[in-house]
Amino acid sequence: MKNDTRILLVFIVVFSMCLSPFSTLLACTSDSQCHGDRICENGTCTYPDNGLKLACSLYGDIPGTIDTGLSEKSVEDIVREVGNAVGITRYPEILTGPVPNALARISRGKRQIIYNRKFLANLKSKADGNWKVRFVLAHELAHHFAAHVYLDDSVGHANEYEADQIAAKMLHVLGAKKVQIIDSLNVLPGEGTDKHPSAAQRKARLDNFLSKLELEEKSQIEQKICEQKTYHYWDGSRCIINCPQGLVAQGDKCVAISCASDEFWDGYKCAKRCPASNQRWNGSSCVAINNPVEISSFRANDRTINSGEEIRLSWNTANAQECVISDDVNYDDSQVKVTGRMTFYPDQTTEFTLTCYGSDGSEDSRSTTVTVRETQNAPYCCDIWGNRRCVIMINPGPPGSPCFCAGQGTGVMCN
Fold it and tell me: What is the pLDDT of residue 6?
């Protein structure tokens, strides 16, 4: 009789648990001992009255409460695979549950991704199913990554677009093609809601995003190839060849200039060399120059300086129409007048060459060399970009402290 009574009591308890969604499921002393949405209340695991508060899904409505279960390891591996593609190192808890597809949520302070086991299994059976499964899980991981999981289920169209793009980036890094990524959105219903854009809208946005991503990557590849070439530099959109003095561009290479014995390189082409210094080639013959250009002086105020210190160049000319300073010196060429002066701050020994041109085709050049002393661990004063400006020899402060360079203003101490 006692055994029959015990069996009856057990049956009543189990039956009552199956009837009520808020029924006692397990004895506990803390929330961590309870599963899914359940909390520890009065020594037992029960569903909280307020249910789910923080969540966003791939599409569709979100249930009030979810009876979650343990996920498959293969799904957890996929979440980590897509996350690793963009450098994510901390992951939410992965669970299964009766949700329409998949969702990201925060429950009792824990970040979670909950997926419908049958939904993912059905996706996997389709063409390119592995990419579709990755996209769904990457989309939910992106909601966590971009902090979209807000109170009161406040998920707008902008957040869905952003989660789609982050997921697309993850799959792109893993090797998915553009068509495979966009095709992943075929799991969505056609119509949109106030919280989720329509499938057509999301596909259009994703197509535009991936097109831009492909162009950026193509540009990055072209830039790397350009930077590996000799005498080339990337100007932000294309590869430019910049041959040094003595070489000329031929196609994609810089080759040595080879002019005939009676010719010289004028900076652009081989030009005829006239026998007399007061003559120039007019295209058919040598003609006399009436007023040849002449640089009467070109000097530096100091021949030896410390790295980053100021050097002033000055010059005077006659019959000059235009003057330039050697190409290996960085400067604003609009500041070079036919007679004038300029200030430089060389960090290495530099030869400055001034070349002036006359209206009659004549030219003249002068050079001066400024020697820069080697200063080991010198206390420099740098600008906000870290460029050395001058050496502080008297009472230099520690790195990062304010400093001042004459003619250049304030900066910070650096090595």
Answer: 43
> Of 27, 106, 33, 32, which Cα lies nearest the Cα of 66?
106
pLDDT at position 164 is: 92
Give the integer Cα–Cα distance in Å for 371 and 300.
Answer: 11
Angle at 408 between CA 403 and CA 411, to 5 degrees: 30
- 103 beta partners: 57, 114
Which element (helix H / strand E) includes 389? strand 388-391
Give the C-alpha separation, 406 to 138, whole Å. 56
Give residue 117's identity as a one-letter amino acid code: R
Residue 207: its pLDDT value, please? Answer: 93
Strand 247-250 with 232-234, pairing? unpaired
Residue ranges covered by each domain of the chain: 2-46, 54-206, 259-288, 289-373, 375-415
Contact assessment for residue 210 and residue 178, using Cβ atoms and an 8 Å cutoff: yes
Phi-psi map region of 218: left, alpha, beta (phi>0 left; psi -120 to 50 alpha): alpha
Domain 54-206 fold is Zincin-like (3.30.2010)
Residue 345: DSSP 8-state: -
Q: Which of these, 305, 274, 304, 308, lies nearest to 292 by C-alpha position?
A: 274
Instruction: Tell me, letter by letter, the H, E, C secondary structure of 28-55.
Output: CCCHHHCCCCCEEECCEEECCCCCCCEE
Would you state the torsion angle of the CA atoms of residues 103, 107, 110, 116, taken in this order, to the nearest 10 degrees?
A: -30
How far apart are the C-alpha atoms of 306 and 6, rounded to whole Å? Answer: 97
| CA pair distance 344, 402, nearest whole angstrom | 22
Pick from 69, 59, 161: which is nearest to 104 by CA?
A: 59
| Domain covering 289-373 assigned CATH 3.40.190.150 in the classification | no
- Both tokens of 90, joined, read 């901390």
pLDDT score for 374: 66
Q: What is the mean pLDDT of each run of 10 residues along the chain (415 residues)?
A: 41 32 54 65 60 53 56 88 88 88 84 89 86 93 81 65 91 92 85 84 92 86 86 83 80 82 74 77 76 87 81 89 75 73 85 86 86 71 74 72 75 79
Query: What sign results for the dihedral spanned by CA atoms 369, 375, 381, 383?
Result: positive
Residues 6+ apart with CB under 8 A from 222: 234, 238, 239
Q: How many CB atoms lie within 10 A of CB 15?
A: 9
